[in-house]
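FORM 12-B: Structure-to-Sequence Request
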């Protein structure tokens, strides 16, 4: 993530959202049950709210971040909570991402969940009930 001169936060789009995740965590996410993914989506929404509310340009040295993508495998790199259920493990991994890349990790998860849903033809958890 980086901030422009007006203090607006930016993330770097990843061609493959899986890039941001440690391979073991990525495997857990891609094999998670639809119910776990739906729960994870709700956790993600809360984490995104917190991330957007706590954006602070003074906490990030933008000189080295402009147009830098989150380093490969950052989310889950410490492998903390490896034995936790996938929702708790992923939430813990996202909270452990360094501040300057946390929003990037959250956006990568959002894109990954969207991609998994599209590829499997699953229900859109954001769709309005019929």
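FORM 12-B RESPONSE
SEQUENCE OUT:
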């Amino acid at each position: 993530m980086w901030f422009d001169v007006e203090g607006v936060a930016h993330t770097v789009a990843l061609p493959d959202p899986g890039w941001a995740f440690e391979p073991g965590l990525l495997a857990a996410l891609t094999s998670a049950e639809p119910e776990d993914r739906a729960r994870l989506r709700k956790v993600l929404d809360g984490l995104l709210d917190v991330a957007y509310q706590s954006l602070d340009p003074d906490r990030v040295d933008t000189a080295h971040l402009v147009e830098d993508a989150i380093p490969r495998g950052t989310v889950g790199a410490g492998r903390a909570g490896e034995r936790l259920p996938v929702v708790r493990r992923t939430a813990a991994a996202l909270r452990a991402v360094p501040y300057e890349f946390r929003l990037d990790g959250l956006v990568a998860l959002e894109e990954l969940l969207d991609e998994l849903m599209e590829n499997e033809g699953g229900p859109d958890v954001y769709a309005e009930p019929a």
